[in-house]
């Protein structure tokens, strides 16, 4: 029997708190789960630094990846199967792409990518097509199968219906993470009727569409998404940890570039610092390794690196105040910058503006949403209409970008009775801390 | 105002998926949560290797510790408060002991303690009374307060009512972990009506008792506990990972003791290997550090250490068969031992009997249960009766120890077409693999 | 001890699927629950005919009334207590008003009130101040206490803070029913973080306000409300049952007024039909009594009454098509009217336009919302701002009334092979059934 | 196409709070749901008088019947389908029997059957094979199909595998009601992992068996069942309402038999009282009709009937004390009997011993369990073993019948300051009320 058609003798199941069970019958999927590149995702948290705000959010990307796979499996096997618009020959490809779509994520991706100019999507492709266990499994299906999987994940695959299963404004990726992140953080947002949405999904030539009768479930999903972004993903405490983490990486990079002598050579970082990182080096990076370095750096000679690492590891975070980028506030920021320098607190690391921004829904896809397809409804008469033209509530919020700016700083350093007493008093007044 | 009586200006809450919210008003509790020793518990999983079986079980001991604190807080503030048998002066002590009761746990405690003859309870005491941030906070309450906290955790404190809140057969520790572990694994066991149990708890001189009317809720709790032990805690796949982990540590110890030259010095292990570990060294150990070493050891020269680490990190676990320690089976085990040696698979590391054993409930406390008080019911007439004398279902299972033995081995090594073909065939037959 | 201050020797609890437990300590509350007027609410469904669409929605108004009481109790005892803006002297009054706010509801209130020009709020007052067991209990608190309770429910009580607890756009009434109706129907809408909302409620002179930090939870509540209205309360199948029920009552009224001789005298309806109904007669009406008559009427001589009752009792409902009140459609409706008459299907009973309309949120309170206060946020600096000025998402939907019209008819009567064959064919074409 | 094979054009779903959705594709099932005999189950509560203890337990037998159907559907379509031991030709029969198994239940069956010597199983058969809408639908499948359905429900059908789906110690009936009753009452018992149990069910010649690997899930189910019986089904307050209801029926029967002249003829009861009830008369009985009579009887001349009806309708229940049928207690009961007569409180109606008894599990099936098959496990080697031989915990409780006796009486009548003052004091002492 062709490897691609091989079934396990007995279905395997993983107990999953969100979907109850993850079901695996395909040998290919089973083998992919067993690869070391996939298992590595256990050592990368799904929500980065969020666990420092919501202590339950300690779940890994492996957790989420299994969930996305399960949702795609249900769409295909329970809803699409047998419909003329669906090509069953794309089934295995869709499942593999779903399972592997986050494979290239590194530790605390957000900060790393910013500081070292990395791109997890690039590494996902490299792992899928490179010399890895994942690639070996995929190649057994067909010589060009790894490339196809990479193309689906990169959204360049020609069958856009397959792409839309994992990359659209209502794809399996988002449906899993909203529910999963809600479950692990324990927040009451993030609930929507996924079972209903799955039941009303229909395959069309270039995308998944939603039967009109499921419009309200989709509205609910969009509202959940909105709440999760502002209540969880952009939580100011999480962003504080993120700011510190980013500054740790900046400092390490700066020290390396200025010839600083580390007590223990940070070998895991070298190729990253030189901008020349191989897949095998990349795969060694996970959050355990990061914490090893952060712990060691808690004893480094450089005071800034030492302090920032201690803050991150021991959760002694920066405080924040609201910040609106008006002229007034920009002037105040420059004034604070000067005062921080006078107080011998390096503002490059200790005075940080962080901004979060989100569009709850849009149909013309600007910015981050660029490659996410809008949602289309399938009307009773067969017509297809973009969601915001049918839903008054979605229309009302469509295109309304919301942005939030905060100014982060270490409040504990602003109170000590040092020689800088008066300067710190000035700083505290400007920050309205007293 | 005395530090012990200080309240936060505004109550702080942590969103918790199990108890909805953790509420903190006491300054002391807030300060303890902020210590680096408490924050370290984020880097130690509550359920050790269980996440390799139940992928959701990635929650940390910090998570659980907050939960135990919250349960004790509710018992005291919502149920005991104002009752003559309860001394409000013990409130803060009880809360601190609840929060800190797991402070001395190291990474993968079970395996570490076995191999290196460590004792997490010893380290809990050392951290509480030693030179730590936790100690500094506790000492602000009173000079002897750290010792009192340590005594409650060690169950030697003279007020046994306080002790029983966190150490009995129905204490806050167990009530939290059963529910929490059920939540994160996603299993349907582990549910019981905690709110009802809390409502019927009553303080008595030397222990918490349960009003007779809550007996059925307690029965349900005991059944939950039974199911969680056999379905989750003793799951054979989890034990397989545990076996491998233990063998890694054994091997590393053996290599160290026989003068092996590691490619990178395992400095974090030295004092453990020499049996002379300080608290500050102990506190540096967490699961991130362990994974750093396991990753490095994946490339070690020693084939056994290398192989075991790869298995653990990439979840390539041992298989198992049932094993009953009868004469027949012991003979078979010895035979297998010989065959493994002949096949050049060191049986000291690759052929392991693992046993799990549990008493669902007992009133005379043998073995592990030694220090756990039995459960007492408070009857309407004021009499107090041990649970199994009132509950037929508890009586039926009381004292019934259940034990499970399994024999673990690396099945993948038993199939290759090497020179040892015939020996391996013999092994496979003895293990009934074919 | 004054009756108003009497506490039960031991707290009573009712197991509640939504709030876990309903807690009762006050003797007055306990006694009110035991009155026959309150117990009568067990025989009136909370959601009228909704159980014919969502089979789980069989819960009664007693169920909901206990829930509203419990929410108000938590707000007062857990959040307001001890705050200077809260007058503890209003506690019992608030609890009684919460418990009794729906006391005057009759069976299938919506239809009854429309057909017989009744007003449940009028009857609530009459029951509270009239010669009833509820009144006897309340009078033991104080001679003017029943009137005060009635005033709070009627929103005329001078302390508007007390009124707002049960009548505002985010009151205990709505918070209970959204969650309760979601629970019993099983829909996934209706979830919001009530515990968080309760924690951020603050008493102010003339209303409850919400701390700014709880704004997102309130947004979520408003979205839940929106979904519940359109997914559950206005479900077209429920409205079909409602239409039939209304027509049954219309027909019975018409028959009575035209001197029809019923096989069994509908004594329970007489005073209603003559528009002169006493409280004691009103209290005898419940849904069991209605079903007794509907069952008897299934055998009445009048064909319309008989048919409609059979439809309602056996759930043989009307079908519907979309209807927009344009000129075209109005003409079509008139045409249908004529055709129905020709086909000997009385359009007064068998061709019905039903409209539902809702405002998701508004601050200027038109229509049904007239007496519902808008939601106010309490900012950090003490300022109070109306919600839609702070929340972009609420602002986006604020004031957007949505209306839905449907045309109901008995499809089964339009297909039979009778003499009216051609007329029915015409009707079916106009209704686009073929 | 044969009617039996007809599918709906589009699958119909009912939102169900327990199973999320009930799925219907078969035309036969859809038509059966629409019959008036099935719709009548909406007017009969699943748990009789339990709603007077647990206010959420207002759900109907229709609710439960849909659930049983859905479970059987899943077993057949998701687990049995394609297995050689399963005859797909029995599918529709199994679904119909599941849906209709409770069809013959009357209002408050338990009390009615006791007093009037009725048998709901008899009426189920009569409705299925008699002149009813249900029969008409079933006959369209085949002339002998109604009889087959009746046989499956009566457990006399020759294919015992089909019978065991709805009648064994782990059938769809029980699995639905345990979960459903837990959901609507809100208790935390009643949870077990049904999805897991379904997955490990296997068809065998004469029954459903459970794969050994699902043993723990089955243990959990048995414990849930035990808790539900003692916490919910046998709750003493529910039994108090049941006692009063039974006494109402007894009294009405007695009055009828002694020629009492009712103010309104209880026509619905006549054939029941004469022991000669037709199916069509039986079908008119539902709980709405009962409440109509109870309300009317609240004003009857007979003081006992009047009082008991008021108690039942207004939930003014009997109190209870423990009662053990020892010689001592029997003597006390006789003494109380005499004293009640002296106090002019008729003990035939006002002094009632009620007993509940249950076997948590048994393999030899005595008493009520007579026709319930024990549970069999399918071992890896194909052997089949009775559950209690494999499970220590089930063995421990197997065959342990538990019985509870209570003595019920109207406490409120024992306190008034009447001429019987001293006698009542004696009664109160004997009952240990003071």
Automatic annotation (TrEMBL), chains A, B, C, D:
<dbReference type="GO" id="GO:0006203">
    <property type="term" value="P:dGTP catabolic process"/>
</dbReference>
<protein>
    <submittedName>
        <fullName>HD domain-containing protein</fullName>
    </submittedName>
</protein>
<dbReference type="InterPro" id="IPR006674">
    <property type="entry name" value="HD_domain"/>
</dbReference>
<dbReference type="Pfam" id="PF19276">
    <property type="entry name" value="HD_assoc_2"/>
</dbReference>
<dbReference type="InterPro" id="IPR003607">
    <property type="entry name" value="HD/PDEase_dom"/>
</dbReference>
<dbReference type="InterPro" id="IPR050135">
    <property type="entry name" value="dGTPase-like"/>
</dbReference>
<feature type="domain" description="HD">
    <location>
        <begin position="61"/>
        <end position="178"/>
    </location>
</feature>
<dbReference type="InterPro" id="IPR045509">
    <property type="entry name" value="HD_assoc_2"/>
</dbReference>
<dbReference type="GO" id="GO:0008832">
    <property type="term" value="F:dGTPase activity"/>
</dbReference>
<dbReference type="Pfam" id="PF01966">
    <property type="entry name" value="HD"/>
</dbReference>
